[in-house]
Design brief:
Layout lengths: L1 H25 L11 E5 L4 H12 L3 E6 L2 H13 L4 E5 L5 H14 L5 E3 L15 H17 L9
Parallel strand pairs: 1-2, 1-4, 2-3
Keywords: Membrane, Transmembrane, Transmembrane helix
GO molecular function, one term: steroid dehydrogenase activity
Pfam families: adh_short
């Protein structure tokens, strides 16, 4: 008898879930507005970071751009400003914890607390594992892994 009740309960949950999914198919959830949100994008001088910055600029977010490439980040900032966004950009080496902490303090003073963090900075050596030099491995880990831990200074951003 207990098994029968459980099977019926699971069947009802399945039916409800399918009906809910069907309704959401035609009535999508309202999109979050990022207008006025303070968005920090690391690695925003080119590639995915630049495109992400441009998309947030179109949505009138306040942009904080970090990258090691001074010319590239300036170009990204200029393109975002043409779209009407407020942009702050900083040259930051995301492989260096102290650079991240110092830049974070400057951002807090200049702009305020970050509400959306896009940890986009990354390094690819493109070399075979066995021929990769020690300094390349260290740089890869510092930027691709450790930088995400250093960015915890923003607390519960996005939570």
């Amino acid at each position: 008898m207990n098994l029968f009740v459980e099977v019926v309960r699971i069947f009802c949950i399945l039916i409800y879930s399918y009906l809910e999914a069907f309704v959401k198919l035609f009535l999508p959830a309202k999109r979050k507005s990022v207008c006025g949100e303070i968005v920090l994008i690391t690695g925003s001088a080119h590639g995915i970071g630049r495109v992400t910055a441009l998309e947030f600029a179109k949505r009138q977010a306040v942009l904080v751009l970090w990258d090691l490439n001074k010319e590239g980040i300036k170009e990204t900032a200029d393109e975002c400003k043409k779209l009407g966004a407020t942009v702050y950009f900083y040259v930051v080496d995301c492989s260096k914890r102290d650079d991240i902490y110092n830049a974070a303090e400057r951002v807090r003073k200049d702009v305020g607390d970050i509400t959306i963090l896009v940890n986009n900075a990354g390094v690819v050596t493109g070399a075979d594992f066995l021929t990769t030099k020690d300094h390349q491995i260290l740089k890869t880990f510092e930027v691709n892994i450790l930088a995400h831990f250093w960015a915890r200074i923003w607390g519960d951003v996005g939570v």
